[in-house]
Design goal:
With about 260 residues, this protein is an alpha/beta fold. Helices cover about 35% and strands about 25% of the residues. It has 2 domains: about 180 residues, Rossmann fold (3-Layer(aba) Sandwich), CATH 3.40.50; about 70 residues, no CATH class. It contains 8 helices and 9 strands. The strands form 2 sheets. Strands 5-6-7-3-8-9 form a 6-stranded mixed beta sheet, sandwiched between helices. Helix 6 links the parallel strand 6 and strand 7. Helix 3 packs parallel to helix 5, helix 4 crosses helix 5 and helix 7 crosses helix 8.
Length: about 260
């Protein structure tokens, strides 16, 4: 039986600000199963990133409960249960690519030999073999983001959290990285939670698409993809793809009308 890597029940999060309370998330119920590729999509400010940060123990829920690998987010963080890829690559410019990837391994106390082995393996996974000695400024934006993914994969956590990792890239590079990410997911069998603003990206990548409403963020629809695992880019022109994209779009519209 496939178990839940992430399980949220009646999850809510309220921020206190100088202007009063901000209800970021409300009554979120969701299960992410092992091996799922789940995309979160919704308007800006709907709580997509906030939910990812709650999973990662970077924010604390104020109501309800959430479990990550059967543990609290804090326990999951301490047991290194996930890797996190931010919107920007967040690479240290004074470190080479391989030394950026090595950083979490150094913190975790891996030996020099084990670090070298893991760096080589993860560079190969993201098609950056031969670029380990380069510095971030010597790489394109897409290559930098792949290095950031390699760093998140280096300690081999089962769960990968990705917060709009390709949002700042041009469409051609983004398409290429979407293809590579699907291949990476298939090779590693990771569970991926992926935040995006792009309907085509969400439909192309995912086994499930979570549609969220404007603040306070609620889950308005969870769409299970019927697309095959093999997905060339031109699958985006098929009736099946367009039908799923239409349902996502309708879910986003329904979420907006919910507030009116």
């Amino acid at each position: 039986m496939t178990y839940s890597v992430v399980s949220a029940r009646n999850l809510g999060l309220t921020f206190e600000t100088g202007d009063g309370l901000v209800h970021a998330l409300s009554d979120v119920d969701l299960d992410v199963k092992k091996g799922d590729f789940v995309s979160f999509i919704g308007p800006s400010g709907c709580g997509k990133t906030t939910f990812l940060r709650v999973i990662a123990d970077l924010e604390r829920a104020t109501s309800g409960e959430i479990l990550v690998n059967g543990m609290t987010p804090e326990e999951a963080r301490k047991s290194r249960s996930y890797g996190y890829v931010f919107q920007a690559p967040a690479l240290y410019p004074w470190r080479t690519i391989e030394n950026n990837i090595a950083l979490p391994l150094e913190i975790m106390g891996y030996s020099t030999a084990e670090r070298a082995s893991r760096i080589e393996r993860t560079l190969d996974l993201v098609n950056l073999s031969g670029f380990g000695k380069k510095y971030p400024w010597q790489l394109s934006g897409g290559m930098q983001q792949r290095a950031s993914i390699a760093r998140a994969l280096a300690f081999d956590a089962d769960l990968l959290l990705m917060d709009e990792p390709f949002g700042a890239l041009d469409e051609i590079v983004r398409d290429h990285l979407n293809e590579q990410l699907l291949k990476l997911w298939e090779r590693t069998q990771k569970t991926i939670c992926f935040v995006t603003h792009s309907i085509p990206e969400a439909v192309y990548l995912s086994t499930k698409i979570v549609v969220m409403s404007p603040r306070p963020g609620r889950v308005t629809d969870v769409i299970t993809s019927t697309l095959p695992k093999e997905r060339p880019l031109d699958i985006r022109e098929t009736p099946e793809f367009l039908a799923i994209a239409h349902r996502v779009r309708e879910g986003l519209r329904a979420g907006h009308s919910y507030e009116e």
